[in-house]
Specification:
Largest sheet: 4 strands, mixed
Radius of gyration: 15 Å
Mean pLDDT: 90
Shape: elongated
Strand content: 25-35%
Strand order of the largest sheet: 3-2-1-4
Structural class: alpha+beta
Order of helices and strands: EEEHHHE
Number of strands: 4
Helix content: 10-25%
């Protein structure tokens, strides 16, 4: 997919989005990440994450459909970070749905 029309100048970036299980900022239960280089998507990554604390609020489940069964065998965030940390650290620009939170 060519996304070069997103911004004529910003054609290389990483987009990230988290879903959470509850109101705690540490309760990430899913992560989605897309890396765009020169206007072309070169990497897509999505994984469930075992949230901390590990409980789900019904309102959140209604929004994203993720529940305890979804994350039962999911990795902890530090394991996920081992897979994506270098991508994030070396990205020239990060785009996020909710930047102050994500």
């Amino acid at each position: 997919m060519d996304v070069s029309s997103v911004d004529g100048k910003m054609r290389t970036f990483t987009a990230i989005d988290f879903e959470t299980a509850n109101y705690e900022k540490t309760s990430a239960c899913q992560l989605g990440l897309v890396v765009v280089e020169n206007g072309i998507i070169v990497k897509e990554y999505s994984t469930f994450i075992k949230p901390v604390p590990n409980y789900f609020i019904e309102r959140f489940i209604a929004i994203h459909g993720i529940n305890g069964a979804s994350v039962r065998s999911a990795p902890a965030f530090d394991e996920v970070w081992n897979e994506i940390g270098e991508v994030i650290i070396h990205s020239p620009f990060i785009a996020a749905h909710n930047a102050p939170f994500d």
